[in-house]
Each structure stands twice: as structure tokens, then as C-alpha cells.
Design a protein that fits this description.
mainly alpha, rod-shaped, about 0% strand
Length: about 110
């Protein structure tokens, strides 16, 4: 997903060779610093994967909940229509049904 946007890999960092100059850096210090960068880089990759997986899971949960809400709204509309058409039905019974549906939709107990 992000491979085309990320320039360096851990292997690239590990295998990087620096030219020595008369007034160059100490190779041991450069190696220690690159080791720290590599560990951070691996951790960022791991965090990114975890977050991507979490986004997928939450997106799936969200889709399922939206479908459930649509279904419950349709059932609620059907109940409202039947209550409007049936003048002899008990309004207390209809109110109880609506209350139960609202509990299901909004998760209130």
C-alpha cells in the first residue's frame, strides 16, 4: 500500500556504506545511530500494519451496523404503517414494540 511512497527499507539502511573522509564521522557512531533508526523503522512498519488491520475491522463493523440500522428502520416503518392502518390495535402494545426497537437500534437497556 505504501511501498511506492517509502524510499528506504530496513535492509537499505543496514547495507548503507559511507565513504571515509579525512575528517569523516566515526563509523561506530554512524552504525549505532543507524541501528536505532532501523529499530524505529521496523516499529513504525509494525504500528502501521496494526492500524491498517484495525481500520479494516472497524470499517467492516461499521458496514454491518449500518445494515442492521437500515433493517431495523424498515421494520419500524412497517410497524408504524400497521399501527396507522389498524385502528383497533392496542396503542400500548405498539409503544412497547417501538420502545424495544429503539433499544435495539440505540443499544439502550
Amino acid at each position: 500500500m505504501y511501498q511506492d511512497r517509502v524510499v528506504l527499507t530496513v535492509k537499505d539502511i543496514y547495507e548503507k556504506e559511507f565513504k571515509l573522509d579525512t575528517r569523516g564521522y566515526r563509523p561506530q557512531e554512524v552504525d549505532k545511530f543507524l541501528d536505532i533508526i532501523m529499530r524505529d523503522y521496523e516499529e513504525f512498519i509494525s504500528i502501521n500494519k496494526e492500524l491498517s488491520d484495525e481500520i479494516k475491522d472497524l470499517t467492516n463493523d461499521n458496514m454491518k451496523l449500518k445494515q442492521e440500522i437500515r433493517s431495523l428502520k424498515m421494520k419500524l416503518d412497517i410497524l408504524k404503517e400497521s399501527a396507522d392502518n389498524d385502528t383497533g390495535s392496542n396503542s400500548v402494545d405498539v409503544l412497547k414494540r417501538l420502545s424495544n426497537l429503539e433499544k435495539i437500534i440505540y443499544g439502550k437497556e
